[in-house]
Amino acid sequence: MEAARRLIAWMAARLRYTAAPIQEIAAEAAGEPEFARLGFLGEAASAMREGESPARAWEKAVSAFQAGGLRAEDKSLLKNFGRGLGRSDLEGQLSHCEAFEELLSGCAASARTEAGAKGKLYITLGVAGGLCAALLLL
Fold first, then answer.
1. Is the model's pLDDT at 109 over the cut of 90?
2. Which residues are CB-neighbours of 4 under 8 A, at least 6 positions away?
3. Which residues does 82 contact at the CB level (< 8 Å), separation at least 6?
């Protein structure tokens, strides 16, 4: 989610300073190493180049994306972001990006908290399993 948040901030900056079409911005983002973990980005950019609407291309690419550890809620949020791509003027696009960047910041913080809690759980389970194995060997 953190990578998706950075992507949206990056897209907003490109929109603000270049006012390029969303298709060009998506294609440029797909080539950035920083966003390599977001595998759906290349597929979305490719579909946009072939003439598909940005909103539809984004939604299909996010739906098909399997890797990256995205939960269903995360995918839903990314799809909702995609629905607004290319559908308004520059100011509308910037507002859209800023709103979703804030939403993704909250989701990223929640995911970090969840990962920390699950990490502690796995450590506890590992220690308990090790102790059980040691007791069985005695």
1. no
2. 38, 74, 78, 104
3. 44, 54, 55, 57, 58, 59, 62
Query: What tokens were used for 36?
Result: 């390599």
C-alpha–C-alpha distance, residues 2 and 117, integer Å: 18
* Helices 90-137 and 72-83: angle between axes, nearest 10 degrees: 170
How far apart are the C-alpha atoms of 88 and 31, rounded to whole Å?
25
For residue 105, give the nearest of 30, 19, 3 by alpha carbon. Answer: 3
Q: Among the listed ranges 31-45, 77-91, 122-136, which one has the minimum average pLDDT value?
A: 122-136
- Identify whether the C-beta of residue 55 lies closer than 8 Å to the C-beta of residue 42: no
Q: What is the pTM of this model?
A: 0.72
